[in-house]
Amino acid sequence: MTESFVFGGRDTAIAILLVTATSYPRMCKKLDATQLSWLEQNQFEPKAGNLLAIPDAGGNIERFICGVSDLTDPFAIADLPMALPEGLYMLEGSGVKANVEALAIGWGLGAYQFTRYKNARRKPAQLKLPNAVNHPRVQEMVAATNRVRDLINTPAEDMMPRHMAAVIAEIAQTHGGEFQEIVGDDLLTNNYPCIHTVGRASVHPPRLIELLWGDKSHPTLTLVGKGISFDSGGLNIKPASGMRSMKKDMGGAAHAIGLAQLIMALELPVRLRLLVAAAENAISANSFRPGDVIQTRSGITVEIDNTDAEGRLVLCDALTEACEEKPDLIIDFATLTGAARVAVGTEIAAFFSNDKELAASISEAGEQACDPTWQLPLHKGYRSLLKSHVADLQNSANSPFGGAITAALYLQTFVDDKVSWAHFDVMAWNTRSRNGRPVGGEAMGIRAVFGMLEQRYNRSDK
User: Fold this and answer.
1) Strand-pair partners of 52
2) Residue 325 vs residues 320, 330, 334, 338, 419: alpha-carbon distances, Å
3) Rounded to whole angstroms, what are the CA distances from 29 to 23, 68, 184, 326?
4) Any idea which architecture 5-124 has in CATH?
5) What is the mean pLDDT of the chain?
6) CB contact set of 258 (below 8 Å; sequence gap of 6+)
C-alpha cells in the first residue's frame, strides 16, 4: 500500500496525460508541432490501453500519454503501475480531477503482488496524488481489497481456522476491537452443532470467531463469513478438478474480514460485529454422512443430502447467532454455489436480499464503484425442493436447477424476517488476468457494500 502512493509534497513527478476519444482532439490543440509530429509518427490513437512516452527536446521522457475509455472506471489505468518504469507519476487530463479517487484506487489495486512465497517481480510505479484526495479512503480501500486477496491466495496449510482467528485477532487489536472464539468441542457446549459437525473430521479444530467494535449506541451491523479453509467435499468427495482451487472456500470469510477492516479503519458509525464460521471439511472416520440428521442452533433439524453442501451448514448456526441480538443489518459472504457462477459468470457478485430498499442500494452503489453485483430472486416456490421426509428440511435440493436460489432459501430459513439481510454468493477468484485483477483471489462486492454502508450510515464524507 505505502509503495503505491505519494500524497502531496514537492516530489517531482512525470505527468501521465489521460485521454479519451472525446478529449483527445481538444488535447492535441495544446501540444506544439514537435509533439504532434511525434504522436503521428508513432500512430498513437486514444484507445484504451495505448501508452506512449513523449520526449522533450533533449530526448528525455517529458510525459506519457495514455488512452482510456472511461475515467470513472477504477481499473482504467490499473495496468500502469507495472507497465511504467519505476518512478513517481501524476495524472493529468480532462475529467481526471473529478475521478482521481477512483483512478487512484485502481492504481493501488494494480500494484498488487502476492509475495508470501516468492519475491515480487519488481517495484510498482508510484502515483503522486493531490492533497484534495481523500487519502485515508484510497489507502484503506486498497488495503482491505488486498487483505481479501492475500487471505484467499494463501494455501490451506497456512490458512486453517486457527490462522483465520489469528488474523482477526490482529485486526481487532489494531483497531481497538474485542476478540473471542469458541473452539472445538466447546462449540457443542455453546450450541453451535452445525459448525462442529462440518469441522469435526479435521485435525484442525473448527471454531466460531467473533470481533466486536464500535460505540454500543450506534446501529448494529453484523458481517458473517463462510470460513471453510479447505473443502474436500467430505464423503461426497469432489473430483480432482473441483478440489484444486478449494483453498478459496474461505473466500466468504476473507470478504467479511476485509470489509470489517475497512469499516473500522474509516470509522463508520456502527456497532460492528464480525462472525466467521471456520472449519475444514475433511474426511476421516468421524466425518458426517449423507442421510445424517443434524440439530441446528435454531432448533431446526436438517437432513444431510450432500456433505459438499457444508457452507450453508456452518452459516446457518452463525446466522442464527447473528439474529439473536436483532441487528440493524446482516450481510453474509460465501463462496457457496457453482450455480451462482452459471447464473452471472465468475466476475459478478451475485446476491440475495429480503429487503428491497437494501438490494436497490447495493446495486446502485455497485454501479457507482464499478464493482458489479446482481440480485437473484428468493423465489418462495423453490422452498419445497428442500423438503425432507425425516427432518424439517434438507441441506441441498434434489434438482440440477436454481442451486444458488435454493441455497439462499436454506439460509433465509435461519434469518429473522424482521432483520434486513443480504447474502452474497461470490466466486472470490479471478479466472483470467485483467487490468488490476490478476489470476487468483479477489474481493467481489465489498466496495459496493461499503459504498452502500456509507450512504446508509451518513458518513459519505469519510
Assistant:
1) 65
2) 10, 11, 22, 32, 10
3) 11, 19, 70, 61
4) 3-Layer(aba) Sandwich (3.40)
5) 95
6) 144, 145, 147, 148, 151, 443, 446
For residues 46-63, give the mean pLDDT.
Answer: 91
Specify the amino acid at residue 388. Answer: S
Active-site residues, by number, are 238, 312
Nearest Cα neighbor of 138 from 91, 86, 173 is 91
Which pLDDT band, with edges at 50, 70 and 90, does 323 fall under?
very high
Confidence of residue 32 (pLDDT cuts 50, 70, 90): confident
With beta carbons less than 8 A apart as the criterion, state whether 297 and 192 touch: yes
Which is it for strands 293-295 and 301-303: parallel, antiparallel or unpaired? antiparallel
List Cα–Cα distances, 357 to 176, 179, 452, in angstroms: 32, 32, 11
Burial annotation 224-257 (CB, 10 A radius, 16+ → b, else e)? bbbbbbbbbbbbbeeeeeeeebbbbbbbbbbbbb
Query: Is residue 422 over pLDDT 50?
Result: yes
What pLDDT does 58 receive? 83
Residue span(s) of the chain under CATH 3.40.220.10 come to: 5-124
Could you tell me where in the chain the CATH 3.40.630.10 domains are found?
140-456
pLDDT digits (tens, 9 = 90+) for 192-248: 999 999 999 999 999 999 999 999 999 999 999 999 999 999 999 999 999 999 999
How far is the CA of 433 from the CAs of 153, 170, 381, in angstroms?
15, 31, 39
Q: Cα 153 from chain centroid? A: 13
* Run of H or E residues at 128: strand 126-129
**Would you say 103 and 144 are in contact if contact means Cβ atoms under 8 Å apart?**
no
Cβ atoms 178, 172 nearer than 8 A: yes
Ranges of beta strands (E only) in 20-68 are: 51-55, 61-67
| Lookup result for grid cell 462442529 | 196
Residue count of the chain, please give it: 462
Angle between helices 446-456 and 251-265 in degrees, nearest 10: 40
Residue with cell 432448533: 299
Quote the cell numbers at residue 124.
510498482
One-letter amino acid at 162 equals: R
Rounded CA gap, 442 and 437, in Å?
7
Assigned fold of 140-456: Aminopeptidase (3.40.630)
Nearest CA to 257 out of 194, 332, 315 is that of 332
- pLDDT > 50? residue 2: no
Rg of the Cα trace of the chain?
A: 24
